[in-house]
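Sorry to interrupt, but I need a hand with the structure work. Could you write out one complete protein record for me, on any chain you like? Just paste the record in under my message, thanks.

. . .
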Amino acid sequence: MKNSIVLVFIFFTILGCNKNNENLNSNIEQVDTSSQNAAENTGLKWSEEFNGTTVDTTQWDYKLGASGWGNNELQNYTNGLNTQVADGSLKIIVKKEAEGQKVGDYTSARMTSTQKIKYGHVAIRAKMPNYKGKGIWPALWMLGADIKEIGWPQCGEIDVMEYVSKNPDQVLQTIHSVANNHTNGTQISTDFISLPSIEEEFHIYGLLWKEDKLQFYIDSQDNITLTIDRPEVYNNDNWPFMKEYYFILNIAVGGNLGGEVNDLIFPSVMEVDYVRVYELD
């Protein structure tokens, strides 16, 4: 690692995040997200609307297995057994299949997009599972498309939305890189912010992605939750956000962030209305 570069990045990032967080509204304004659909159709680059009756496997792959996924997770990801498409939305369903509390005792889905994007306005409209107790970790996120060549965290990670049921009514938005990631506690994040209707209503989780800036929002671009500027001195270690990424939709069970699992919460269902990418204004 080039420690001097990392230190410079962390210094500028802290300044930027502190400035942003001074204006952060921890109680996100509730807006009617459905009314935005028509207005946002202009400039649409790519979308998945989930309007059919099955997952489009030309658009999505399933990642499989019960490996712990680098975070001590307990679920076994299956090949379509834990997904449904109906009534205009994708349902990812996590189930308890065995006694519980061990790796593989739960099944879920981890879907990755075949579509790759570089820059733009990302909008994902979704509803988290009804609150029943601790143990699940849904996420709507992105990884650098070069992960197979260079690994994580070198590839970069953009968490458009993370939710853990041990912290109900809250949401998290985060980036990870070599310089800033959760393994050493230096990830750049909103931290948990209040969203009281997250389990009851659909919300839009958004990202405005430019070559030199990332901005996260919830429901409306007027509700910017986090702004991250590219450091003055940058490289792939501290700014791996100038290349293609793909989407991941999943629910994990337990794990380093999900924590303790209450076996009475299953089945649990996350719904995704759409994933859209627009041209930036």
About this structure: Helices lie at 3-22, 37-40, 147-150, 255-258. The CA atoms of residues 217 and 224 lie 4 Å apart. Confidence is low (pLDDT under 50) at residues 1-41.
